[in-house]
Amino acid sequence: MDFDIVIVGAGLVGASFAMALRGGGLKLALVEAQAPAAVADDWDSRVYAISPGSAAFLQSMGVWKRLDRNRIGAVHEMHIHGDAASAQLRFSAYEVGVAELAAIVESRRLQSVLWQGLEFQHELELICPERCTALQLHEDAAELTLAGGRTLRARLVVAADGMHSWVREAAGIAAEVNAYGQMGLVANFACAQPHHNTAFQWFRSDGVLAYLPLPGQRMSMVWSTADAHAAELLALPAETLCARVAEAGKDALGELDLLSPALQFPLARLRAGRLAAPRIALIGDAGHVVHPLAGQGVNLGFGDARVLAGVLMQREQFRDPGEIRLLRRYERARAEDILALAWVTDGLQRLFATPGGVVAKLRNAGLNLTNALPVVKNLLIRRALG
Ligand SMILES: Cc1cc2nc3c(=O)[nH]c(=O)nc-3n(C[C@H](O)[C@H](O)[C@H](O)COP(=O)(O)OP(=O)(O)OC[C@H]3O[C@@H](n4cnc5c(N)ncnc54)[C@H](O)[C@@H]3O)c2cc1C
User: Domains (ranges, CATH) in the chain?
Assistant: First the structure.
């Protein structure tokens, strides 16, 4: 056998999974289609709200401490507004007794630190740039053929190749996919007023707008909005876009100045029928994609990586890592978190996408009611903290 495990996809989830297996005596290969973009001084438009649970996972592998603290935004408060002026929900790190509710981290920098770690992992072969062209599943092994002609035999193939997972398709695992008909528009801004480490979110009739605090007087925007509206916003000159974003965010941070060009990402939800099949496991977006309104997609993927690595590292010494009973243990352990998050993000998205009337009154009353109930608030926030 060439390898115990071949991981396909070295995005944040695949790379963190490979690192979590370090020192486990498993022979690993990691196949990635393209090396990550180089780190630059400008502010990356693509940022992630990393939960304290995910930060602890990254810390356990020595990744977190290698990130530049001056480039990480801390979220101490969250202010969530409904589409009626009075409806709001507030969370504070102080109230729940944690240092911060989330950390805002640039994608390129996190990816780069993860890759640096992979280079020092002796039992790992990083194969990049390379693509897979064929997958054959046998009783005792999986065989992956690469575009360059090489064939890799492994006990287990882990799909970490994102939403359009080639491995998931090649293994014949069905997935339910629904496009939201929305784009996630992202951009960074300098703001005239300090954000005081507060993340803001507005559920608006034209979508969900979030301001995430970056260090200094800067913020990162994610505006999930209908395709046509996103196209209109993208086509605006920088000054007009800044004015529109400031107005949509009720001038919470005063005048805005664009720091990085706006980018858009199509939004969809996806749920694979299974996370485990003989000789195959799915992690990250290959197994589930949720709406970014809760900023939890990659956190859910880090959860998969941590749990699957735990199951594999703790197995009895000579047990086959591709054994289906072992993989089912991983699948069962992740089911509740994935279902709960998919349900909440999808439910909220639909609730606020329904125009006017009784539904509008109920959803805004719901925000205020949740805000007034410390027990419910604490339950919600504990879950989001991971
Ligand atoms: C606008 C927006 C904002 C978001 N904000 C947040 C947030 O604040 N917090 C959060 O937790 N989540 C957030 N998410 C979700 C998050 O981006 C994803 O959940 C996360 O990036 C998934 O990581 P992944 O490693 O599973 O997949 P990917 O990032 O898609 O990585 C897959 C990797 O596999 C490689 N690959 C693909 N096919 C092949 C192949 N055939 N062979 C070899 N390699 C292959 C790709 O090159 C890539 O490197 C957001 C999403 C969007 C759209």
Answer: 3-37+108-177+269-349 (3.50.50.60), 64-104+180-266+355-385 (3.30.9.10)
